[in-house]
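Researcher: Quick test of sequence recovery. Tokens follow.
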């Protein structure tokens, strides 16, 4: 690999290491490279930034972020918890199972790891500790289940990947269903073993159909939301972007109906949405200049040529991608990570004959598990103040779930047909 390309990547990581925000690091790296090596014209930077943002698909990002904010602030999580507890509350480790299942349903509503962790964790972690769970286990379980938010559709990282790599977002959503469910089930199994081994008390109240139906009725409006979102997308009634609009309007109407929304709260949610979605969109925009350099310098092709001799099969490519993203995902957020690395890594897998959708789903799933991987796992930080224990203890509690999640993904690296089951 030529010296200038090595400089390109080294400079980027130096800027990040110095603590410069990701969006400025990418922009500065691109500008410095163009100036030093006389590549292209600096006018291309604002041009590519504008062009990168001029995408109808990307409208889904602020819309799903807004929907997640509404669901988190609107008391929706309590209704989900009550209903699921009425269904499985008498089983061993019931509260842990309720936490995982509620996170999976909530993930299908918001697509946000942090929103899912905070909304469900604030209810379930204190409840689990009160009923005999070790605080670090309870915190580790909830933050791990919360990390399924960006995997179970809808998924903001998959929207970013689909836009960057020109892959159908709807197909990526569908491909994320199986990995998300399998990881959720692995968490439930670990919780079940823990509850039996540590003799966690369980409810002795008999099943009450009347109360269960009452809880179902209270949560019906919430449970109907994923049906609207995913049913509308896969029936062809509307696009993922239109689904984001409908989801946000429906969630807002639901919280107003439940009398959980005020003008003050609504304005605060709008402010948070602009701040959160704006940071994502800025990174996506400036990555247009980064992608421009990758293209004109043919960096993906050169890296692919260098690596192909070591990737004699599709399985070898998947293992190398898995190990690489396992490390990078622990220190880099999924948004900028996808925009920087997907154009470099994914074309190699496609060249080896793998489905672009399968490569995209696995890329996003592995990267999104960085949300529970120390040292920068965002859900670990989100649950720490809720559990009121040190970050290191939360990390220890999440360790077994991190291992289980990556074990599931590693197996899926060798079983593409399972991920592509619905295609």
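Model:
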């Amino acid at each position: 690999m030529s010296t200038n390309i090595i400089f390109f990547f080294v400079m980027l990581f130096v800027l990040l290491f110095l603590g410069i925000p990701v969006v400025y690091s990418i922009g500065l790296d691109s500008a410095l490279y163009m100036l030093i090596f006389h590549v292209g014209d600096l006018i291309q930077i604002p041009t590519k930034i504008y062009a990168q943002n001029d995408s109808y698909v990307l409208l889904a990002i602020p819309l799903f972020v807004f929907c997640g904010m509404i669901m988190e602030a609107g008391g929706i999580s309590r209704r989900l918890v009550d209903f699921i507890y009425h269904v499985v509350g008498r089983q061993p480790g019931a509260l842990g199972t309720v936490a995982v299942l509620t996170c999976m349903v909530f993930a299908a509503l918001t697509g946000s790891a942090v929103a899912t962790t905070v909304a469900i964790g604030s209810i379930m972690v204190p409840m689990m500790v009160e009923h005999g769970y070790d605080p670090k286990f309870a915190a580790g379980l909830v933050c791990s289940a919360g990390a399924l938010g960006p995997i179970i559709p809808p998924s903001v990282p998959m929207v970013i990947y689909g836009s960057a790599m020109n892959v159908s977002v709807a197909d990526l959503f569908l491909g994320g269903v199986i990995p998300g469910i399998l990881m959720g089930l692995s968490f439930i199994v670990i919780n079940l073993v823990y509850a039996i081994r540590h003799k966690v008390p369980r409810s002795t109240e008999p099943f009450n159909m009347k109360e269960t139906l009452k809880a179902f009725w209270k949560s019906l409006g919430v449970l109907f939301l994923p049906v609207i979102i995913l049913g509308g997308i896969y029936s062809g009634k509307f696009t993922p972007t239109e689904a984001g609009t409908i989801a946000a309007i429906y969630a807002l109407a639901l919280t107003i109906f439940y009398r959980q929304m005020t003008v003050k709260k609504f304005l605060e949610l709008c402010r948070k949405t602009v701040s959160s979605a704006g940071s994502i969109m800025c990174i996506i925009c400036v990555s247009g200049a980064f992608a421009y350099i990758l293209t004109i310098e043919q960096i993906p092709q050169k890296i692919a040529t260098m690596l192909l001799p070591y990737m004699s099969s599709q399985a070898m490519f998947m293992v190398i991608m898995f190990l690489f993203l396992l490390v990078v995902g622990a220190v880099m957020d999924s948004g900028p990570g996808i925009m920087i690395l997907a154009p470099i890594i994914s074309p190699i897998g496609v060249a080896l004959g793998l489905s672009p959708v399968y490569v995209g789903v696995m890329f996003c799933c592995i990267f999104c598990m960085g949300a529970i991987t120390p040292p920068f796992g965002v859900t670990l930080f989100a649950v720490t103040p809720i559990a009121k224990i040190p970050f290191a203890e939360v990390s220890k509690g999440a360790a077994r779930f991190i291992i289980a999640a990556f074990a599931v993904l590693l197996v899926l690296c060798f079983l593409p047909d399972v991920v592509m089951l619905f295609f």
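The radius of gyration is 22 Å.
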